[in-house]
Design goal:
Oligomer: single chain
Shape: globular
Distance between the termini: 42 Å
Radius of gyration: 23 Å
Largest sheet: 7 strands, mixed
Number of helices: 19
Strand order of the largest sheet: 7-6-8-9-10-11-12
Helix content: 40-55%
Structural class: alpha/beta
Number of domains: 2
């Protein structure tokens, strides 16, 4: 399966001033697969070391931080020559060794000819005591679960490439709208965890998808038990399991009192921020108005929570597949929550910044789902799970703040001012060619 982050790794390989690469992401999102594939395709040799499984390697780094000695010891251990420019060194589960992280800075300063890539989950790297990422000496990259384009590329590569090359209007979106709609339904069910996607491609079995998603969820919960404090653990699991039910409310503002009546913000705030740092949920804060920076009017106590993967959201929420593929007027809150989650994860992947949302104070509660910064513009986004139709909330926002650019997204494929949901993965290019009609 092709991942978009591969393009950046290929560029990095030939850069004369490259830094060691550290790829972070949630567990099971495909970091190891991506790096192994990169090595096999673009290097003569690959040395792969999993630090959780091989404490001897961690011991080598504990003894010295000097690149020359480390390279010599890794060569002896693997019984292979390590040749600059020809050998890719992969250090997986890097959070298992505190000194390994620290050593990366010295490879940048003293041994830049070697190609070194490391991988670790947010839970292992960001939340372990003692780990310190050498900022400035390492290139940090994030791998997210597969987005819709990668999902489509894995099943219909010709169609995916055609979409990428053809822009946003008319053919092929109109010609292949039925196929794209079906694939988008599939994506809302399956999500973007690579193991689940691969199983879906091979079996087309919802039962198998559900089992694999359940295993991944249990794996996350095992990580929670390993890394969170005893007092924080039940709060993390309670928030995790409560997100789907709060997203399908008419008002999607997350309320701690709905998690457990006896818990309040002061009881759950630390647990929520732990989950945000771990990359498994996204916190979207409310803003009063779109100032620069957006954070200047944000209210940290007024927010929505989304999950890192739409398939896991569906599974934890126990949203039956019939809710997704049924008529557009059935289960509208379930459909809209899944569509919003997909847009949220795409915006996080593309822009890697905090997202916000806006709502009016008047009765009726007009709400713009997301606001983010693209260059010099604050971009409001309204998400429709079906045809966009009347965008009342976005209309109120436009009347009040007159944005130079905005995004209305839905299943429409034939309207100039609507970005198809199928194409949100390419929103940055769409914003470059589209200007709001004022």
């Amino acid at each position: 399966m092709q991942r978009l982050l591969m393009d950046r790794l290929i560029e990095w390989k030939d850069e004369p001033s490259r830094k060691p690469v550290l790829i972070q992401g949630i567990g099971k999102c495909g970091k190891t697969y991506l790096l192994r594939e990169f090595g096999e395709k673009f290097f003569k040799d690959v040395l792969y070391f999993n630090l959780k499984e091989n404490r001897h390697i961690v011991d080598l780094f504990d003894q010295t931080l000097g690149p020359a000695i480390i390279i010599k010891n890794l060569s002896i251990f693997s019984e292979k020559d390590i040749v600059p420019g020809e050998t890719l060194i992969i250090l997986d589960d890097i959070g298992a060794g505190d000194k390994v992280l620290e050593s990366l800075r010295y490879f940048y300063e003293e041994a830049p000819d070697y190609h070194i890539v490391a991988a670790g989950s947010y839970l292992d790297v960001a939340l372990r005591q003692g780990s310190s990422i050498p900022v400035g000496q390492v290139e940090l990259l994030t791998l997210y679960p597969m987005n819709f384009y990668e999902f489509l590329l894995a099943q219909s590569p010709m169609l995916a490439m055609h979409l990428k090359e053809s822009g946003f209007r008319g053919e092929p979106y109109n010609t292949f709208k039925k196929q794209l709609t079906e694939k988008f339904y599939d994506y809302q069910i399956v999500g973007g965890m690579p193991e689940v996607v691969q199983s879906w491609i091979e079996t087309k079995s919802i039962e198998t998808v559900d089992k694999l998603q359940t295993q991944i969820i249990k794996g996350f919960e095992s990580d929670f038990m390993e890394l969170a404090s005893i007092t924080m653990l039940p709060k993390i699991i309670a928030i995790w399991n409560n997100i789907p039910s709060q997203l399908i409310k008419g008002n999607r503002k997350f309320m701690f009192s709905k998690v457990k009546k006896t818990w309040r913000a002061k009881d759950l705030d630390d647990a929520m921020h732990w989950m945000v740092r771990a990359g498994i949920i996204y916190k979207i804060e409310h803003i009063e108005k779109p100032e620069v920076p957006l954070s200047s009017t944000a209210n940290p106590a007024h927010f929505k929570l989304y999950m890192c993967d739409v398939g896991l959201l569906r599974r934890i929420g126990q949203f039956h597949t019939s809710m997704i593929i049924s008529g557009i007027n059935d289960y509208p809150l379930v459909k809209s929550s899944l569509a919003e989650n997909i847009v949220c994860t795409e915006l996080k992947r593309i822009y890697e910044q905090e997202l916000y949302y806006w709502s009016a104070e008047n009765p009726g509660r007009a709400e713009v789902d997301f606001i983010f910064r693209d260059g010099e513009f604050n971009i409001p986004v309204e998400v429709k799970a079906g045809k966009a139709g009347r965008a009342r909330s976005l209309g109120q926002y436009i009347t009040r703040f007159a944005p130079k650019k905005y995004v209305l997204t839905g299943t429409d494929t034939d309207k100039e001012d609507i970005l198809p949901l199928f194409a949100v993965w390419n929103i940055k290019e769409w914003l470059n060619i589209y200007t709001a009609p004022f």
